[in-house]
Amino acid sequence: MLIFHNPQHQRHAGRQEMFRGRLVDCHEVPARQEHVFEALKRRGIGTLQEPGAPDMALLRRIHAPHYLDFLARAWDDWIALDPANEAVDVLPSVWPGKGLRYDVEPLNFSAQVGRYAFDAGTPLTAGTWAAALAGAACATDAARAVASGEARSAMALTRPPGHHAGADFYGGYCFLNNSALAAQALRDAGAARVAVLDVDYHHGNGTQSIFYERGDVFTASLHGDPRTEYPFYLGYADELGSGAGLGANLNLPLPAGTDFDTWLQALDEAIAAVRRHGAEALVVALGVDTFEGDPISKFKLRAEDYPRVGERIAGLGLPTIFVMEGGYAVAALGENVAGVLEGYLA
Ligand code: SP5
Ligand code: ZN
């Protein structure tokens, strides 16, 4: 397995996120990737390598060019407003919500931020663009290594994560949708049908929305029930896709407190649906915030369960790209991610 790790990830280091009216320390921290990197190295899992340059043409096929332009210039615009802004990160405080216009780009910077950000929990920092771009390159290179036959499986070990980011929006700690980029790269390399299987605790709303009207990319997500869990406003079972994509989206919401036995039944259901769709290659949006010790999530998976997750995924027998998504029990991340990969490779 080739592991493309993001050498720029530390440049994205949010300081605080908004939670219940207060700014609190970020959960999505650089130590996350470091712990996974060290665990893979220590256990000798895969071959660690750095990605090449990002493919801007591929990025523009998944994300709107005006959104990419905004991300590229946002920090400079923020500092231009006031050099003292160096000391704080960009968070939105106003949105084009109910009854307001989303189609016009305002000139006011804060108004622009609210047009692209859907929550106040996702700080944009000095190095966010650089880190996100290098992460996109990890996902792209992982997909292409597998598509070319260089490797049967690969991983994008990266942060910030991606599955909450849509064509023209960010949130949920995500800016560029790495899993979607990997899926598109697999399609472009010749796979007629591909699937994204999202096992992160949170619904992959960005990935779902990117592919919602397409039949060539099947999206399946098992996640905390959006009636009580983030991202709240998408991820229900009645979202089936539309147009050419009707039947190519599967949501399996599960209640807070779900244990491994119940979760595994949902995973098997999603895997059966991927098989029925006829996918020739698979992207796994690998969040391990399903762990019982996760500080922001409510499933009950234990460390010894993760190898069995990898085994089940391997049972599909597909060329597979793992893309790192969430997981915030920082000290346990290495063991849990390594467990999935060891189970997959066994
Ligand atoms: C990629 C990913 O896993 N994104 C998750 C984004 C979740 N953002 C909302 C976090 C709310 C934090 N709640 C803290 C509860 C502490 N008891
Ligand atoms: Zn998550």
From TrEMBL:
Matching InterPro entries: HDACs, His_deacetylse_dom, His_deacetylse_dom_sf, Ureohydrolase_dom_sf
Histone deacetylase domain span: 28-342
Alphabetized Gene3D superfamilies for the sequence: Histone deacetylase domain (3.40.800.20)
Cofactor(s) essential for the protein: Zn(2+)
Keyword Hydrolase part of the UniProt annotation: yes
Record keywords: Hydrolase, Metal-binding, Zinc
Family membership: Belongs to the histone deacetylase family.
Name of the protein in its database record: Histone deacetylase family protein
Organism whose genome encodes this protein: Roseateles agri
